[in-house]
Amino acid sequence: MEETISLRELMETIRKRLNLIVLITMAAVLISGIVSYFVITPIYQSSTQLLVNQAKSDQPMYNPGEIQTNLQLINTYNVIMKSPAILDQVNEDLDLEMTVSQLNEKITVQSEKDSQVVNVTVQDPDPNKAAEIANQVATVFQKEIVDIMNVDNVSILAKAEVGENPSPVKPQPLLNMAIAFIVGLMAGVGIAFLLEYLDNTIKTEQDVEKMLELPILGVIATFEEQDMQGTSRTERKPSLRGETVGSK
Questions:
Q1: Contact, 152 vs 51, CB < 8 A?
Q2: Residue 117's beta-bridge partner residues?
Q3: What residue ranges define each of the domains in the chain, with the CATH number in brackets?
Q4: How far apart are CA 128 and CA 163, in angstroms?
Q5: Contact between residue 138 and residue 156 where contact means Cβ atoms under 8 Å apart
Q6: Please, which residues bridge with residue 61 across strands?
Q7: Sign of dihedral through CA atoms 32, 35, 37, 42?
Q8: What is the pLDDT of residues 14-38, one digit of tens each?
């Protein structure tokens, strides 16, 4: 026989194990908050912008062909900017005591769509160091690209600066706690239904009727021991009173 589960049974299962669901959800949110605020190291971000403009020439007006060439060269510049030729010099200038790979992981180079602007973003636990690295990468690249590709068409548009109260870009405690709430709620509901599925004990007459597929003819009531003692004392009082009257 195929078993079907009604919506009422689902709601009854959730209601019966509501405490477990709430406990798991709150535990997930609490753990996420503790990890986000006290365990994970906050990471700060700083950015600078470079402009790959038209190459210097004697032409008085812009040449569309040169601009298109600059756009195509931006991808090449992005790779060069994170190459050891640039990062080794940055590491030496700032005395960072990092490997090229470690410094490379902190830097992200992206170009704006269909534009000649390149964004250099650096992430670091120290906001001042992040801004310092970003500015130094831009400066070293602007200087070294002249020798590397024999061009002089890179300008620094905006330097990275640190605000008065910088905010970390990660972790994001509120977002992490919101995700933990959803995950914890789903896990709690899943565990509740799993426990209900594994629980094959018979607790009510409805369970007997469902298992045997037979109608219930009667139910044997249960009595507490205190109720039984109280009933026995009540039944003895009339007989004792009658014996007293008869002896007189």
A1: no
A2: 51
A3: 1-40+172-229 (no CATH), 44-158 (3.30.70.1130)
A4: 10
A5: yes
A6: none
A7: negative
A8: 998 999 999 999 999 999 999 999 9
